[in-house]
Amino acid sequence: MENVNIHKTAIIHSGAKVSPGVSIGPYSVIDSDVTLGDNVRIGSHCVITGQTKIGRNCKIYTGAVVGSAPQDKKHSSDDNVFLNIGENNVIREYVTINTGTAEGGGKTVICDNNLMMAYAHVAHDCVIGNNCIMANAATLGGHVVLEDNAMIGGFSAVHQFTRIGRLAIVGGCSKVVQDVPPFSMCDGHPAKVIKINSVGLKRAGISSEVAGNLKKAFKILFRQGLSKTNAVKKALEEVPNCPEIEHLIFFIKTSDRGLCG
Length: 261
What we know:
The protein is of the alpha/beta class. It has two domains: 5-146, UDP N-Acetylglucosamine Acyltransferase, domain 1, CATH 2.160.10; 202-253, Up-down Bundle (Udp N-acetylglucosamine O-acyltransferase, Domain 2). Helices cover 17% and strands 28% of the residues. The strands form three sheets. An eleven-stranded mixed beta sheet has the order 1-4-7-10-13-16-19-22-25-27-28. The longest helix has 16 residues, at 208-223. It is elongated, with a radius of gyration of 20 Å. The relative contact order is 0.08.
């Protein structure tokens, strides 16, 4: 292993693939089927296991357990399942991330530039996009999808098979049992749509004109008491079209669990 910094107490299986620039702290364990990309930083007392690939420049802090078996009674140790983590992710203290399940597609996927704060949990078969944030102790059940730039507040729990839309924010301590629309702020127990994520839209460079159209669409979709079919129809008729409106409408049309109220 060239150009790596491995503490003498770390245990690295001979089958692990460790790229240049990797740093592994005291008492950490790297299992046989793990691949670590360039410049990955692993703190002390971490366990990286399973068929796990971690992209370059990721940072994993003390006590994290990454690539452990899914917490699913149907899982067998013989199942061929994976965890794929992209680049530039920050995984803080004691985060736990599971591999996929054979019945759920076989892999958990985390893309690039995400932040998972201390004690967050990502269950089997989740798909997390880019630039997402999970605050302390946020929890994702199995098969959850986070679209790009989604944010989950601390101590919030997201039910399995639920989707969190692009640029959506879930408030702390929320109970999320249905899909959270893109561009929204949701909060509560159970979580409900509060308003559009105005600050997030501005930070993402979305124009005030588009933000205004989204606000108008939200009023039609979530404040007028219409059925989903009628609300979508009215929004398409009355709100100027743009990629953000198209994404919002597509998300609503394809929701299996229904939307936060």
